[in-house]
Amino acid sequence: DAGITQSPRHKVTETGTPVTLRCHQTENHRYMYWYRQDPGHGLRLIHYSYGVKDTDKGEVSDGYSVSRSKTEDFLLTLESATSSQTSVYFCAISESNPTSGGTETQYFGPGTRLLVL
Amino acid sequence: GENVEQHPSTLSVQEGDSAVIKCTYSDSASNYFPWYKQELGKGPQLIIDIRSNVGEKKDQRIAVTLNKTAKHFSLHITETQPEDSAVYFCAAKWSNYQLIWGAGTKLIIKP
């Protein structure tokens, strides 16, 4: 298994409160991703990072922010949680493919189940 | 942008039979197509992938085929076993750093 941990693994919070999820990797991979997984939608990209302090938005970034101050850590913050952000959140990592360019295989963490009441 | 459609959403097959899951993509520039398996309570895990310069790839009971002209690719599992029960996701590479994902197929293996 890729060395990826997510914390917390489960969280219940109330609408309007801030929430921070952490992804930690021991693989020294350059690229890190945050996805949310909801029934019928598969995996949807929230934000991704291509290096320390280098981040970009994915398709469902509204209401979320990220930070990456170290290679090994990628934080996802819900500034003011809403019920629509109840979901399972997955972190993934990837490394550059020097032959094909860009990245390909993504390795996933175990997920964080978030319930916003 | 890229869009990936996956069918069926649920597939039930008898143990020992074959299972086929199909995906179509929209961006002809996509050149990398992975398949992931997700077991209950876990993150997705890569099981096989294919690049656009080949038409088929096999790994034991699992195979993936790619038709670039029609822009579709399929996962084939032969001699299905109970441990094949899971949710399977296809994806297509879009831009250098992103994968666009299908909605998933729940595969049920009946004893």
Which helices and strands, and how do they pair?
The complex is a heterodimer of chains A (117) and B (111).
Chain A: E1 4-7, E2 10-13, E3 19-25, E4 31-38, E5 42-51, E6 54-57, E7 64-70, E8 73-78, E9 87-94, E10 107-108, E11 112-116
Parallel strand pairs in A: 2-11
Antiparallel strand pairs in A: 1-3, 3-8, 4-5, 4-9, 5-6, 7-8, 9-10, 9-11
Chain B: E1 4-7, E2 10-14, E3 19-25, E4 32-38, E5 45-51, E6 56-59, E7 62-67, E8 72-77, E9 86-94, E10 98-101, E11 105-110
Parallel strand pairs in B: 2-11
Antiparallel strand pairs in B: 1-3, 3-8, 4-5, 4-9, 6-7, 7-8, 9-10, 9-11
Give an account of the 3D structure.
- The complex is a heterodimer of chains A (117) and B (111).
- Chain A has strands at residues 4-7, 10-13, 19-25, 31-38, 42-51, 54-57, 64-70, 73-78, 87-94, 107-108, 112-116.
- Chain A has 117 residues and is mostly beta strands.
- In chain A, the strands form two sheets. In chain A, strands 2, 4, 5, 6, 9, 10 and 11 form a seven-stranded mixed beta sheet that branches.
- The radius of gyration of chain A is 14 Å and the shape is globular.
- Chain A starts with a strand and ends with a strand.
- Chain B has 111 residues and is mostly beta strands.
- Chain B contains no helices and eleven strands.
- In chain B, the strands form two sheets. In chain B, strands 2, 4, 5, 9, 10 and 11 form a six-stranded mixed beta sheet that branches. In chain B, strands 1-3-8-7-6 form a five-stranded antiparallel beta sheet, with no helix packed on it.
- In chain B, a hairpin with a 6-residue loop joins strand 4 (32-38) and strand 5 (45-51).
- The relative contact order of chain B is 0.33.
- The termini of chain B are far apart.
- Helix content of chain B is 0%, strand content 59%.
- Chain A binds chain B through residues 4, 31, 40-45, 48, 50, 58, 90, 92, 94, 100-111, and chain B through 6, 9, 31-32, 34, 41-46, 49, 51, 89, 93, 95-99, 101-104.
